[in-house]
Design brief:
about 40% helix, about 250 residues, alpha+beta, 5-stranded antiparallel β-sheet, 3-stranded antiparallel β-sheet, 8 strands, de novo design (two linked rop proteins)
Length: about 250
Amino acid sequence: MLTRTEGIVLKTQEYAEADLVVTHFTRDRGIIKIFAKSPRKTKSRFGSSLEPLTHAKISLWGKEHTIPKITQSDIISTFQSLRENLKDFANVSKLAEILIYMLPEGIPNKRLFSLFLNTMKLIESFEQKQKDSIYLISQIRLLAELGYAPRLKGCGKCGTKSFDFYPGSGTILCKRCALSQFRGNYQQSIKITGKTATFYSQGAKWPVRALSRLKPPRETINELSFLLDEHIIYILNKRLHSSEFLAKT
């Protein structure tokens, strides 16, 4: 059966001597694995269309419940500038990892596809000094669309104003609700500031065209980045590879 769709390359794995298994995020079929025959050979007709982050129109052939074979790939956008900048590539790879681990394979989500694609376009258009905040906002919106966004607006149980985030609960908790929730078992919280909570709220809700007006201080970026990393670690029970890499840069 022949299928045509749009896809963004999230990950590639070498297979045999010159073949690849490519993880694509497609508009119509969600995240799927695709078999590519001999793309690592010099004269491959696929060329650079299977490079990470490449957005292309693709044609697939295969039976249901099997890994389809890619038969055609026409590039729409290479996003080469994101691949050439090491920090950009690591940060976009982090978003791709979140998708791979949190979105089940084969579940179409056109809204999420558009969000990821438009995020890459947005990042290309911003100056480097603005990108740290945009990456954080992108994580927030991606997690929200996937249903895993942390709650930072008051206690998640009673609504009382508080700034203690508990990764095990995915929310801010006041002292009284934390004691009730954990029944005397000590749980480490992450203390955040009001500025971080405000930036989180604005980043999640402001229209894309207004995001350039958000200019949080470095302390806020570091604080929220740490919180999101700890939140993701709790959900997945492991640290993202891209987070480990970024921590060393």
